[in-house]
Specification:
Radius of gyration: 23 Å
Distance between the termini: 40 Å
Structural class: alpha/beta
CATH superfamily of the largest domain: Alkaline Phosphatase, subunit A
CATH class of the largest domain: Alpha Beta
Strand content: 15-25%
Number of helices: 14
Helix content: 25-40%
CATH architecture of the largest domain: 3-Layer(aba) Sandwich
Length: 497
């Protein structure tokens, strides 16, 4: 599809017959190299062809490799501490509560804001976090899966919602019950959702002709959490004869068909990137972070509940509690610091000692059979360039993402004869889940100004924004992490470890 140069967004400058640089970014949430670049590569001929004529390799995610901070970091060039976003949910100041993160927490300009600031037309579709939607002048944003419902005003400007709904029906934000739902139903619904997202992206690319389109589908993430055992032959429950094994291959083929339709409408002046925010791996159970803290005397309850439940509903004795945790793909540990928390008991000068004690104890934790578990413990103040907002005091990656962190409190009905709660569990405590996140996602890029360099190591999620801006001819602001992949072939693994 031929495109022409034009004036700034919203202007009436006369078009001239000169191809203008455009960039199309397709984000596949949670897509791992093991599938997109290996096991299902033969089912993805368009992605394979893109790789053959450009640059591709594993894309190192952020700490933590979680959807909301990862996409936020990718599209701003800032780390989680600078953004003050440490997970799906972050601390509510002055309380012991956590609340969902949304786009209002994201103050740094995103790559489409930077492009729009110099007069380019931009479209951002479903990129977390983008609820509530907030578009730059002359641009458009469609909200991500964090949108409360398809009935909400999920686009800015509102006309985009009306246009897409009229053409594609109600926006499929997410798939209900992707943890624990009927597998065949989930496979069908996740594929239908993904195909709708890709069709919407194609329509916007053609009908609105943005200089930059950045579109993400949450579909792969949902498919992996619901059906990973059918995708990964090494999974303990994998059955090669199960019909959902073919459904997984067909799903990735459907993604590739959507990519092919987009590529067919790109001219020689267009650069295409296919990226993911993190990867996926087999989940081998979980560690009950709050039970571990209870066992050490760091977290104290007035009484244990009769049935398992979240810490938020337990009767915590904050006057004797020094630390508590939050579960998820990774664990977060918070200290009950005097002057910071409502009922803080840890003196600020004692925080370094408590932190060192817990880092050492977590790193030394052994499994039920006595083998080291290889937990990775990160101190945010040491990992990030800044720590805005209310950061956790520790980030814990159990088994370096081999296991989840389980934040629930066991009920009295689960205690053993000595009154102890189980520390290790075979699965997730918040719903069925066969996969955890992994450190490496995917990166593939080809098009204008991109050499066929092939497989490249040391790629970082932070490289995406500088690379996109450079392809559009937009100056990269000072202070951004990452670099233009097309111009810098050197690896920088130490910088992104």
């Amino acid at each position: 599809m031929a495109t022409t140069a034009r004036g700034p967004a919203g202007s009436r400058a006369r078009d001239v017959d000169v191809p203008r640089p455009r960039v199309l970014v397709l984000g596949l949430d949670c897509a791992p190299p093991s599938l997109a670049f290996a096991r299902f590569a033969d089912a993805m001929p368009h992605l394979s062809a893109l790789r053959a004529r450009g640059v591709w390799g594993p894309l190192r995610s952020v700490v933590p490799p979680v959807t909301v901070p990862a996409w936020a970091c990718m599209t701003t060039g800032r780390d989680p501490g600078e953004l003050g976003i440490y997970g799906f949910r972050d601390r509510v100041p002055g309380t012991y509560d956590l609340a969902l993160v949304d786009a209002r927490r994201l103050e740094a300009p995103r790559v489409w804001d930077l492009a729009a600031s110099v007069g380019l037309r931009t479209s951002a579709l479903f990129v977390p976090p983008s609820w509530p939607p907030r578009a730059p002048a002359g641009g458009e944003v469609a909200g991500c899966f964090l949108t409360p419902s398809a009935g909400h005003a999920w686009s800015d400007p509102p006309a985009l919602k009306d246009e897409l709904t009229a053409r594609f029906g109600a926006y499929q934000l997410d798939v209900e019950g992707f943890r624990g739902g009927e597998p065949a139903r989930l496979a069908r619904e996740i594929r239908a959702m993904t195909e709708q997202h890709l069709a919407m992206a194609l329509h916007v690319w053609e009908a609105h002709a943005p200089d930059l389109l950045f579109a993400v589908t949450i579909g792969p993430d949902r498919f992996h959490h619901a059906l990973w055992e059918h995708l990964e032959p090494a999974h303990p429950r994998h059955d090669p004869a199960h019909p959902l094994v073919q459904a997984g291959r067909d799903y990735y083929a459907a993604i590739d068909a959507g990519l092919g339709a987009l590529l067919a409408r790109c001219d020689a002046a267009t650069t295409v990137l296919v990226v993911s925010d993190h990867g996926a791996r087999t989940l081998h159970g979980g560690v009950a972070i709050n039970e571990w803290l209870i066992g050490r005397g760091e977290l104290v309850l007035h009484e244990r509940p009769a049935q398992r439940g979240p810490l938020a509903k337990a009767r915590v004795d904050w006057s004797r509690t020094r630390a508590w945790g939050e579960g998820g793909y990774h664990g977060r540990v918070f200290f009950n610091v005097r002057g910071r928390e409502p009922q803080g008991v840890v003196a600020p000068e004692d925080v370094p000692r408590l932190r060192a004690e817990l880092v050492e104890a977590l790193a030394a934790m052994r499994g039920e059979e006595g083998a080291p578990l290889g937990h990775r413990v990160v101190v945010p103040a040491e990992a990030y360039r800044a720590t805005r907002g209310n950061p956790p005091d520790l980030l814990v990656f159990f088994g370096d993402l081999d296991q989840r962190a389980l934040g629930t409190i066991a009920g009295t009905n689960e205690l053993d004869a000595a009154g102890r709660a189980p520390l290790f569990h075979a699965g997730n405590d918040t719903g069925a889940d066969a996969a955890n996140h992994d450190w490496d996602g995917i990166f593939a890029m080809a098009g204008a100004g991109v050499d066929a360099r092939g497989y490249t190591e040391g790629l970082s999620l932070y490289d995406v924004t500088p690379t996109v801006l450079a392809r559009l001819g937009v100056a990269v602001p000072d202070g951004l992490l990452g670099r233009d992949v097309a111009q810098d072939a050197t690896t920088h693994a130490a910088e992104i470890a």
